Amino acid sequence: MLSDPETMRFYPAAYDRAGVENWIARNLRRYADDGHGLWAMILKATGELIGDCGLTVQDVDGSNEIEIGYHVRRDLWGQGLATEAARACRDYGFARLPVEHLISLIRPENLSSRRVAEKNGMTIWKEVTRQNLPHLVCAIRRDRWQPKEKAVEKPPL
Ligand SMILES: CC(C)(COP(=O)(O)OP(=O)(O)OC[C@H]1O[C@@H](n2cnc3c(N)ncnc32)[C@H](O)[C@@H]1OP(=O)(O)O)[C@@H](O)C(=O)NCCC(=O)NCCS
């Protein structure tokens, strides 16, 4: 997935084998240091590894933000899998971490990722440059968060 040029077209380059090994090592370090990172996305029906999604610490304009990131295996795009995983990470992040908002950093031309962020309740907060490329900082504030459990508990209007 991380070596697939189509999947990685909004990144500076697809990863070679060493790049993937570094990516795995980086996320193992995040699990140990932060208690979270990009996790394996597993298709419940088959148990297959089909992507990653999770929470990573990102420096944005000098402050540490928690980002929800996602990659899905290309043959499974468009089935709502990234949205399901991103919403689960959002609910986990707000439930477990003392943060006032969660973000996703997205290249403006990455329309499918922008749509996932939108379905995850995010709106565009600001634009920043990372790795010399413009990125949207999409964000959801805690007070706009409606976890599934809360929504179910709400009395009818
Ligand atoms: C972004 C990505 C994770 C989305 O995964 P996915 O499982 O296909 O996402 P979902 O099915 O949950 O939602 C995708 C949405 O984008 C929409 N979409 C797809 N292509 C689009 C396009 N060109 N323009 C506008 N919307 C688009 C889909 O219609 C869907 O929205 P809908 O439910 O309203 O129809 C996947 O495309 C991917 O792995 N891309 C490469 C890695 C990447 O860019 N990751 C994000 C880095 S910021």
Topology (SSEs and partners):
Elements: H1 17-34, E1 38-42, E2 49-60, E3 63-72, H2 81-96, E4 101-106, H3 111-119, E5 123-130, E6 133-141, H4 148-153
Antiparallel strand pairs: 1-2, 2-3, 4-6, 5-6
Q: What fraction of residues sit in β-strands?
A: 25-35%
**Helical fraction:** 25-40%
Radius of gyration: 16 Å
Overall pLDDT metric: 94
What is the tally of beta strands? 6
Main beta sheet: strand number and arrangement?
A: 3 strands, antiparallel
Element order: H for helix, E for strand: HEEEHEHEEH
Distance between the termini: 45 Å
User: Strand pairing plus helix content: what structural class?
Assistant: alpha+beta
Low-confidence stretches: none
Count of alpha and pi helical runs? 4
Hetero ligands: coenzyme A
Q: Which strand order spans the largest sheet, edge to edge or round the barrel?
A: 1-2-3
Overall 3D form: globular
Characterise the protein shown here.
The longest helix has 18 residues, at 17-34. The protein is of the alpha+beta class and 157 residues long. The chain is 31% helix and 32% strand. The model has no long low-confidence stretch (mean pLDDT 94). It is globular and about 40 Å long. The strands form two sheets. A three-stranded antiparallel β-sheet has the order 1-2-3. Strands 4-6-5 form a three-stranded antiparallel β-sheet. It contains four helices and six strands, in the order αβββαβαββα. Residues 7, 10, 70-72, 77-83, 106, 110-113, 115-116 line the site of coenzyme A.
